[in-house]
Design the sequence.
C-alpha cells in the first residue's frame, strides 16, 4: 500500500508501510515535531533508531494513531500491541494524574 502526500503525487518512502533502513537524513528529520530526530524512536519499546536500523511507519486508527516500530517489535499484531500500550497508559494515568493527561 502506498499513500500519496499533498497534491504533487509524490510518494514519500515512510508512508508505504514497508520496512525501511535508517539513513543519515532520517536521523535529523523532525519526526513527530522533534528536532534532529529527537522523537525518532520505536513507539513500543522506546529504542532510539540508529543508522542502519530497520524501522516501519504504521498507519493506525487505533490507540493514539500512527506510530513507528523497530524491527524486533514489528509483527502481525503490532497494532493490537500499540492499542494495548495506550490502554495501559490511560489506565495508569487516571485519578490523581488527571492534570497531565486531561483525559480522566
Ligand atoms: Zn521496538
Sequence:
Amino acid at each position: 500500500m502506498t499513500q500519496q502526500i499533498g497534491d504533487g503525487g509524490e510518494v514519500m518512502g515512510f508512508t508505504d508501510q514497508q520496512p525501511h533502513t535508517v539513513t543519515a537524513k532520517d536521523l535529523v528529520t523532525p519526526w513527530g515535531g522533534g528536532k534532529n530526530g529527537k522523537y525518532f524512536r520505536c513507539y513500543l519499546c522506546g529504542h532510539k533508531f540508529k543508522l542502519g536500523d530497520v524501522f516501519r511507519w504504521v498507519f493506525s486508527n487505533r490507540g493514539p494513531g500512527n506510530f513507528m516500530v523497530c524491527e524486533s517489535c514489528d509483527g502481525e499484531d503490532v497494532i493490537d500491541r500499540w492499542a494495548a500500550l495506550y490502554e495501559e497508559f490511560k489506565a495508569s494515568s487516571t485519578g490523581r494524574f488527571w492534570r497531565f493527561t486531561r483525559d480522566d
The longest strand covers residues 54-58. The two ends are 36 Å apart (CA to CA). The chain has a mean pLDDT of 85. The chain has three helices and five strands.
